[in-house]
Specification:
mainly alpha; 70% helix; elongated
């Protein structure tokens, strides 16, 4: 401490230490410094909900706003992957377990995105055929933002499912309270 002997600075340092411990900020800083990853359980679910809501807005309310909501959901999902088991927080070579975790997570996410894409294409095709024979009015992508929203929606599904799958397979941390 460069301010040894300064009573005001020492008191402020003590207050900052207490606040850091109470809020968990000190623990978060130590975890980020160590390079360990975070388990994301609920954040990907919220982002999936946001992507679904954005696609609904794209279909029924506004072409531009729906596209932007879906794109924000995808960008946020991609950003949290850096801190999830899928990201390489240490920046080095991954061991076999970590490599398997990343591959397994991305495989699960890609399978989910493929399932959504195939089912979506089938339903849009059936809706288009039904609209042609005057059985109703069904939505099908027509303009560029519709296609972009669908593409970013599939990317958001892959990123969020991959993060959830890898987080579920990550073993629990052995919490050391002395950190």
């Amino acid at each position: 401490m460069p301010y040894k002997g300064d009573p005001i600075a020492e008191k402020l340092d003590q207050v900052a230490g207490v606040v850091g411990n109470v809020t968990g900020l000190t623990r978060l800083q130590n975890r980020l410094r160590s390079g360990r990853t975070f388990r994301f359980r609920f954040t990907p679910l919220v982002l999936l909900g946001l992507a679904i809501a954005g696609l609904w807005v794209q279909i029924s309310v506004s072409n531009l706003w729906g596209y932007l909501v879906v794109m924000v959901a995808w960008m946020t999902a991609s950003a949290i992957q850096a801190f999830s088991p899928i990201g390489n927080a240490r920046g080095g070579k991954l061991d076999e377990r970590e490599t398997g975790l990343v591959k397994s997570g991305h495989l699960t996410g890609l399978l989910a995105a493929m399932g959504v894409a195939v089912l979506g294409c089938f339903l849009i095709g059936m809706g288009t055929v039904a609209a042609m024979v005057r059985l109703g009015n069904f939505w099908a992508p027509k303009i560029g933002t519709d296609w972009f929203a669908l593409a970013f929606f599939l990317l958001a599904v892959e990123a969020n499912i991959a993060t959830m799958a890898a987080s579920a397979q990550l073993p629990e941390d052995l919490d050391d309270e002395d950190e």
